Target: Glycosyltransferase RgtA/B/C/D-like domain-containing protein
Amino acid sequence: MPVAIRALFADRMGVTGDRNLRGLFLLIALTFAGLMLAAAPQVPDPLLRHDDFQALFNDARGYYPKTRSEGRWLNYLWLLWTDPWPAPLSFALYQGSWAVYLGALVHLAFGRDTELWRKLSVALLAGLSAPMLLISFWFNTLLPGAMVCAAYGVLCVLLPERWGRWLLVAFVPIALMGYTMNPLLLLAICLTRRDAPRSAGHLAQVLAIFVGSFALGMLLIYTLNFAYHGVFGIPMADWRTPTPAHDIASALANVDRLVEVLALTARVISYDTMPLTYVLLGLGLLALFQVGRRDVWKAAYPLLGIAMGLALIAVQAIKSGVVMPPRVLGFAFVFYAVLLGHLSQSLSLRAARVTLAGLAMLFAMFSVLQYRNMVSWQHETRRFATEIGTGPQTLFVTGTYLSIPAVRGAAIQHARALRLRLVYLTGRDVVLCEEEPQACEALPPSLRHPATGLDWSVAHAEGAVVLRLSDIPLRPARIPTRRPAAN
Model:
């Protein structure tokens, strides 16, 4: 490392020498190791959601509609400028980016003198929360946004607090075009760093810069959508079933939808263990009280950060009727983890380890179990691919993907997940008869029918291979499976 850069690191961290630099790098490395160990069942063959395959395949043309309906211009440009990578490599880079972000955030929040176990526990508590786990199944799509957050974290370590604050103007619009939650993760660094001159004026300035930067990002997305799609805005995709508010009655109806999702979120954040939800809420309230009693601003800053994020989500939900899923709340767990870290500093060493490290280990255990429950989908689809083999013939799939037992554990949302998974494993063109029944009419009559019971089989016909699944669904469909004719 060049001497000038090393000196800059040392100056910003208030330390001298390579040993202290290694402390920060060690925190990042251990965070990365913890994230990867918790995801160990997924690492060799990560599970992807159906709308993440376009990013895996670098299908910029197929991803392009998301720039209109979701404003994901950063991801689109990333697909244009990069080559396809193996899924395990993308997953490792995604987790590595979050490890850098979390390491930088925790270092800035607690400093070099705080014990390594405490900082690592805070980082893993945030990184292994249920929202962060749920969103990790879109790792190919979210990789560029995660890299932006990591880069911002590194710059905030290197630069004075004032510079990091004003860098929001550049980074928030870019991060917003990657994913809605990303700007709030940048705000979390500004509101939790210990060298911030906490005061009402400083807090107002940070929030004003953030809101202005967020508005700038929205204006940039609107402008790009107008230039390339002819619409000044972000029209919601039909599959999201938007119900825009046009009067008080419709706005109240959307509030009811928001309340329903908040009830779902209460279960999700504790991995469907409601007693744990109450424990987490109780610890959060205790942290606010205990930390706020010692330093009111140290509690107010993260609390207002959470409130800012929830307000943005609520406005979006009431305005459009589209309620964000629980996975967008990862930002709230970042603030929450920092608050618990500050709480642990006021407890005895044993109580702190039981509270902070114990909760981090509990989240790690739940993460391993959750990832393991989804491995059956990879195993089952690989069995299909082994039986099907590779070749130039088109693969036709009869029956329904909902008859595969693994769809329940892996929470598969769409028939497209099976089609694109088989494309990925076999390299063949794949046609699902439940998506395109007319395309399957050319099959011999004996092969058009689904398999009996819950069995499956593979048959070969002239110029085609047929995977016959059962037509008995094991659960209701979550998203309609019929693909538009244009596709």
About this structure: Residues 349-388 form the longest helix (40 residues). The chain has two domains: 3-346, 375-468. Residues 102 and 123 are 6 Å apart (CA to CA). Residues 375-468 form one domain.
